[in-house]
Amino acid sequence: xxxxxxxxxxxxxxINHPFTYYSDEExxxxxxxxxxxxxxxxxxxxxxxxxTQKSLKELEKDLGFKVLKIKEIIDQEPIMSxxxxxxxxxxxxxxxxxxxxxxxxxxPKSLKTASTLYQPKKIKKVKKVSKDTALLxxxxxxxxxxxxxxxxLSELNKRTTIHKTLLNKGYLEIYEEEYRSEDKVxxxxxxxxxxxxxxxxxxxxxxxxxxxxxxxxxxGSGKTEVYLHLARHYLNLGKQVLILVPExxxxxxxxxxxxxxxxxxxxxxxxxxxxxxxxxYFKVLHxxxxxxxxTRSSIFLPFNDLGLIIVDEEHDxxxxxxxxxxxxxxxxxxxxxxxxxxxxxLASATPSLEVYNHALKGDYGxxxxxxxxxxxxxxxxxxxxxxxxxxGHSAIISEPLKEALSDVLAKGKQAIIxxxxxxxxxxxxxxxxxxxxxxxxCDVSLSYHNDTxxxxxxxxxxxxxxxxxxxxxxxxSLVKYGFGTKKVVEVLSExxxxxxxxxxxxxxxxxxxxxxMILEKFARHEYDILVGTQMLAKGLDFEDVILVGIxxxxxxxxxxxxxxxxxTFDLLEQASGRSGRSNCEGEVIIQxxxxxxxxxxxxxxxxxxxxxxxxxxxxxKAKYPPFSHLIALYLSDxxxxxxxxxxxxxxxxxxxxxxxxxxxxxxxxxxxxxxxxILIKEDDLVKAINVVNGVVSKYLTYNLATxxxxxxxxxxxx
Length: 718
Description:
Layout: E1 2-8, E2 19-23, E3 32-37, E4 40-51, H1 56-63, E5 68-69, E6 72-73, H2 82-94, H3 99-106, E7 122-128, H4 138-146, E8 151-152, H5 153-159, H6 162-168, E9 172-178, H7 196-207, E10 212-217, H8 223-236, E11 240-244, H9 251-259, E12 265-268, H10 274-285, E13 291-294, E14 306-312, H11 329-340, E15 343-348, H12 353-361, E16 365-369, E17 379-384, H13 385-390, H14 399-410, E18 414-418, E19 427-430, E20 447-449, E21 454-456, E22 463-465, E23 478-481, H15 485-495, E24 501-504, H16 514-523, E25 529-532, E26 545-550, H17 564-576, E27 587-592, H18 598-604, H19 608-622, E28 629-637, H20 640-655, E29 665-670, E30 673-682, H21 685-700, E31 707-712
């Protein structure tokens, strides 16, 4: 008999301990089993197995409780390694989250601990058995000689029935193999020779004794080619390489570059089908691939000999998960690199302030590429929208931007227009009573979509019909304010009737491969102008783009978050970097109502150092990161009274520990749930996390229905 300690997948996240079951059959750790829990059939993830000679009665007497038998073994082989399970335990602790939540975030959907029904598709193949063929007829021998080992049985069935005789006589054997979808084929391309600057950086990174290194290179400086040369070096050493990219939109271009140079590449991101993610996961688990390109979740793939982790566009907030467990892929990369004695390369044209601060202090290696490959930085012009409006010009497409677009189209080149709002109009307001139409379930304004004449909540996704009158005063005076991607496309279509205009935002990229198809059309010049949100600002490389227009550039500065200036600078600087990446000189036109803001001035000078110097002074004065660490505890509940009670209990538990803590702060209601935030600001993060783990354990003993989420070093405080 085998005693199993396992985590129950359907147990409340308030339960963070294993349960004991038994099995008559041997089962391995890190496998899943079907069990009965609270009189319901569910699954459990095994983390420890003990063989015992004792009877069930003896065991139950020793343990002091009844032990149930498992219903079924789901996995015959472990679905993760010991290293990965240890990582899950570490992740649970440093994110103050349940272990089962950490396990769930690490596995593909097909292997999520709650998933017990997935069965990979099997296909039947044939192989030849070495036997004397002298006894075969001429037709049988002809067929036998033509069969290739690994041929599909279904294909053989189409050719002839003679193979059945060969099977019966033992000349052929049938075996099953897991079906794998075919990958897109890329033509191989040779490695480009590194420039003198690239080669210096490449050699210096290899020679660095630091675990973490920062490659600070301006847009268009050739950082990707350095990645590829580094990857080749580590692959030649027999090591595995992971290249992380922040956005799905960036993945196709990075995949193309990597697959043109390397064989056996795994791709891993959320837009893959469940089946494909399952296949890629097991390729890595079984050591069939040595290099992986993926987004945030690929940091948890089951590597066995990792040598290098490259974090492209390391500043990007997509590397941080907002849901439990609220982890940072960079933080996990540092941990895995330490465990594997590997190296992490962070790379960006706009490094995060925390990373750059560490690099300047010498905690990380720092390497710079200060010039573009073509040595031509784009010309950047700031347009003051206040003056444009006074002149009677449009606040959407200013006269300077209109003239620049005309010039681009006349030259047969391309332009990118960035507006970080999707939809047609972000606000609908009554001109009589000033009522703003908001979502019934969320305290956020509804955006108007002209193609469907509907209002949509960008938080919960709920869609409403556009009303004819104000729901408050009943006047027919609803006015649409602001503009999003759809409105910009409409305006551009009126201004440039012959131009082909495309759009890239969350509304038209929800389907599989939609990002890639739109970007491929743009690369083929099926679009002259591409309008999009922030997904257009990062890492994309189109040689004929000679103009980038950025609309409402200072809108992000209105947010109250401590890092709103950094987020805005990153977006504008990265978007500017999409212009003039080939031999043609690029131009960037930035439209703003606050053109003298230090963020916009730094962007106009293409000076990260100027921005860093000003911003780091503000952070130091307010003692915000990197001069402290923040821990945000978010409480949410549909019942506001119950929420207030829970926040009172939690706040007082924190106060007793001596941590510096701010009073509960009311946030916007989302998805019908009222929300409060309790913020902790401390210098010693390790100590603070240990204390918060203890506080949360005590809070959970109250068995409150109010949900709790802990976010260590949050990116946003809203």
